[in-house]
Amino acid sequence: MTAWSFAVAFDLPVERVQKACVGLKPGGRGKKGAPTYRPAEILHALLDRKAGKKLSDERLRSETARADLLEVELAGVREQVVELDGVDRAWQRVGMAIRRQILTSHLSKAEQDTILRQLSELKPEDFIKDTEDNDAGDVVTAASPS
Predict the structure, then answer these.
(1) CA 47 from chain center: how many Å?
(2) Cα 134 from chain centroid (whole Å)
(3) In the chain, how many domains are there?
(4) What's the pLDDT at 145?
(5) pTM of structure
(6) Does residue 50 share a domain with residue 22?
(7) Based on the domain organization, do 70 and 102 belong to the same domain?
(8) Handedness of CA 8, 4, 1, 75 (dihedral sign)
(9) What is the rounded CA–CA span in Å between residue 130 and residue 28?
(10) Residue 100 domain boundaries
């Protein structure tokens, strides 16, 4: 988020926000080449430069939460966030495609039934847990049900 967009979002003077950003390390560049920062970093810089005026703890928490929400919204605009319902629908389609491939395969009816039963016993939580444990970004596979 640029200093200008932060100032507009929080109804602050642009010059004040720009002064607060001096010395911060930019995270990138905006569309017009202006440096971008994390909203929480800008907020902390503003609070550090506020001479003699301290915000209450509640206001600080509120503004930090607001900055975090803006960061999530910005990620959504940049299409870095995906709606959970869309992901769920996509995986349902993947599951149906796998089922269709199994049912039209050369496998015997008994083999097809066994594979489909094993797949139906898998729980989404098992994949989520495996994914969180896998920091390297490798392909995650579920263990066969016992």
Answers:
(1) 26
(2) 17
(3) 2
(4) 44
(5) 0.37
(6) yes
(7) no
(8) positive
(9) 32
(10) 84-133
